[in-house]
Specification:
Blueprint: H1 2-10, H2 21-29, E1 34-37, H3 44-54, E2 58-62, H4 66-78, E3 83-86, H5 92-104, E4 109-112, H6 120-128, E5 131-136, H7 156-162, E6 167-172, H8 177-186, E7 193-196, E8 204-210, H9 214-223, E9 229-233, H10 237-249, E10 254-257, H11 263-274, E11 280-283, E12 296-301, H12 308-315, E13 325-331, H13 333-348, H14 356-368, H15 373-380, H16 394-397, E14 404-405, H17 407-419, H18 426-434, H19 439-443, H20 460-472, E15 476-479, E16 484-487, H21 489-496, E17 502-503, H22 527-546, H23 550-553, H24 556-565, H25 581-601
């Protein structure tokens, strides 16, 4: 670990580790199998890149996406680390050159796709230089209980048989208890060290907006964050194209990304985003896993995601540099109904994912909850949030004065559920409350119930909305397979203790839509912010010359430290976050010169 600590500063330019990084690296260097569950942006890549520099021998990293390998390879080359990738993106000549570098012992880190495991070409390379450490990135892909199962990942177990002396380090950002157990079993881990960091990302602000007048809301949101990097996730290719067009017409540098685009256009659009030539990407879920852009300041979900695991991973693209970032989800029951229909079709086929509907319901419950959204997500991953108010989600930030008392309505609805005996769903309960004369009400004699016709204060949609909020708050539960409603222990406590039920207004009067276009104010930048922008321009020029993304030169945090500290010599760069020896030598003089020039312009 002494050597690892020295390389942390010398190569990566970091003075300290993030939570659990040092313990994970220590376990990996001692030869133990390790499963590390760290949040997106929690520094998973350092957990295997640093041991690879310390260990004598080759570290093999199995990674799911070519773009992710390319991104990490660029970053390592800028750090002066010998690394290589062997995948289908290389032509025969480039593959042969990379393979020879691995065989000769030059390369410390080798990236390969899971599909390549059965390849004779990769097997020959590894036979010549067996790995001492096997790394499985995005390890949740090996589990059939995960949200992103990939059959090719199952073949990684073959590598364990082929190289029994190599220890295994599996890393992931999204793993429930069930998925963790499946990873350990599938990778045949021996007395593995397990590290599970907090899933909390305190820098993320979480918000959900009704999907009404959503295009205007999106325009307003993006325009007020002009110049910052963001991702708009959509479920359909059509939406990705349409939203990119709408944003471009508003002079936002936006591009689409989806599987329907030609590979050249898709790659070019991703590269433009990574290199800050575009600010916004409107993308299907195919986008994001393969990039490591740390300065994404916001993520918008135009459609309801299919599960919380996928949603958590996608919002994890924001604020990876540790800075503040915003996450906005547009939600409508219509989206939920559409997704349920698709799932019904999927599950009719052999091999359908029987847990998909359950995961979708959990995602909808997140969108509908009026409790802390951060606590909701953490609870899903088996973690208890210790605060009553996170101060960074719309529910916790809501003014209590904005809530309305729905205690009487809640009592009526829950009484109806109790009297229906847990045998019917929300629709029948609402029909009873409204005094509807339906065939089903007549058949079961529900017009004789004491609650029949007592719910005239809300319309049908209002009662259905209230039922969803009561379910999200835990007062009723939907029982599979037919979704009948049953009371819970919380229901009994509600009546027994005389509790109140307060919620945001159900029927919100529509105000006149404000135009998304408004006068743009030219607010003068503070000195540090203006210098930061000047250094960003310099970084962009240097990155374009080097053919790498801007954040590979230096992350935003480093530029902000430059703007604050104003180093005037190469010696002043020592100790600045993210400035290792290789980068100081390569880029330091240019930034010092620009800062000096800046100071002279202002007579400093």
């Amino acid at each position: 670990m002494d050597r690892a600590d020295a390389l942390l500063r010398e190569v990566f330019g970091f003075d300290s580790y993030r939570p659990y990084q040092r313990e994970i690296i220590d376990a990996a260097l001692s030869g133990r199998d390790v499963l590390a569950v760290l949040p997106t942006g929690g520094g998973k890549s350092l957990c295997y890149q640093l041991p690879a520099l310390v260990l004598e021998g080759l570290t093999l990293v199995v990674s799911p996406l070519i773009a992710l390998m390319k991104d990490q390879l660029s970053a390592l080359e800028e750090l002066g680390v010998e690394a290589a990738v062997l995948n289908s993106s290389l032509d025969a000549e480039a593959y042969a050159r990379a393979a020879e570098r691995v065989r000769s012992g030059t390369v410390k880190l080798l990236y390969a796709a899971p599909e390549a495991i059965a390849s004779g070409r990769l097997s020959a390379v590894l036979a010549a230089r067996p790995p001492v450490l096997l790394v499985v990135d995005e390890a949740h892909c090996i589990s059939q209980w995960g949200h992103d199962f990939r059959p090719d990942y199952r073949r990684i177990a073959e590598l364990r048989e082929r190289f029994p002396d190599a220890s295994c380090l599996a890393v992931t950002a999204t793993a429930t208890d069930r998925v963790r157990e499946d990873i350990l079993r599938s990778l045949r881990m021996r007395e593995a060290a397990l590290f599970v960091s907090s899933f909390d990302r305190p820098g993320l602000t979480l918000k959900v907006e009704p999907k009404s007048d959503a295009k205007r809301k999106l325009l307003s949101f993006v325009r007020s964050r002009k110049g910052s990097s963001g991702i708009v996730y959509c479920l359909s290719r059509k939406s990705a194209e349409e939203l990119a067009d709408i944003l471009r017409k508003e002079n936002v540098r936006a591009l689409p990304y989806h599987a329907g685009l030609a590979k050249e256009e898709r790659d070019a659009n991703q590269e433009a985003f990574i290199r800050d030539d575009a600010d916004v990407v409107c993308a299907t879920i195919a986008f994001g896993m393969g990039i490591d852009k740390p300065d994404v300041r916001w993520v918008v979900h135009w459609d309801l995601p299919k599960d919380l695991e996928g949603y958590y991973q996608e919002i994890g693209r924001a604020g990876r540099d540790g800075g503040a970032a915003e996450c906005l989800l547009f939600y409508s029951r219509g989206d939920l109904i559409k997704l349920k229909r698709f799932l019904d079709l999927d599950e009719a086929d052999e091999g359908g994912d029987v847990g998909a509907l359950e995961r979708l319901e959990k995602m909808a419950a997140y969108a509908e909850t009026e409790t802390c959204r951060r606590a909701f997500i953490l609870s899903h991953f088996g973690e208890r949030y210790g605060k009553e108010n996170c101060g960074a989600c719309d529910n916790c930030l809501r003014d209590p004065a904005d809530l309305r008392d729905y205690t009487i309505e809640a009592q009526k609805f829950l009484s109806c559920v109790v009297r229906l005996g847990g045998r019917f769903g929300a629709t029948q309960a609402v029909d009873v409350l409204l005094g509807a004369k339906t065939e089903k009400v007549a058949r079961y004699g529900h017009a004789e119930l004491s609650v029949y016709g007592i719910g005239t204060e809300l319309k049908r949609e209002g009662w259905l909305e209230l039922s969803r909020r009561l379910a999200a708050a835990g007062f009723v539960e939907s029982v599979p397979p037919y979704g009948v409603l049953a009371p819970t222990e919380k229901t009994r406590a509600f009546f027994k203790n005389g509790e109140r039920f307060r919620s945001r207004p159900i029927e919100i009067s529509r105000t006149a839509a404000r135009s998304a276009k408004g006068p743009e104010r030219n607010i003068p930048l503070g000195e540090a912010e203006a210098l930061f922008e000047a250094l960003r321009e310099l970084r962009k020029r240097l990155a374009d010359q080097a053919g790498v993304p801007p954040y590979v030169v230096f992350p935003d945090r480093t530029l902000r430290e430059f703007a604050r500290l104003k180093p005037r010599s190469s010696e002043d760069l020592e100790g600045v976050f993210g400035v290792g020896a290789h980068k100081a030598e390569r880029y330091g003089a240019a930034f010092v010169a620009r800062i000096r020039e800046w100071a002279e312009e202002r007579g400093e």
